[in-house]
Amino acid sequence: MKINELNGRVFKKALSARNCRYRYHNRNNTGGNFAFEIHGAIGRDFELSGAHGITGEIGYLRIGEIFSVGSTLDKYHYETVERLIALIFSICGDVKEE
Fold this sequence. Notes:
Order of helices and strands: HEEEEEH
Oligomer: single chain
Structural class: alpha+beta
Strand content: 35-45%
Radius of gyration: 13 Å
Distance between the termini: 35 Å
Number of strands: 5
Number of helices: 2
């Protein structure tokens, strides 16, 4: 998956999130790093962060609480946006607000 396939509208629509945006996207000569904040999706707030190469191919992706390091995902889970959304549902879907 490439970085240009990820944007706030995709997550907001698929996860019924209240708000979704880039927290940062730093670009450099070897690619860049980025983080998304996703608020109110499936009753939780969380963040996706990672890095990409010059071509935009995502090198790694992490998911966790906002402002935390998070857990690294296997490449299989982010080969497509659909697989990433399915993984987010499987991780966060059973959480209920108190």
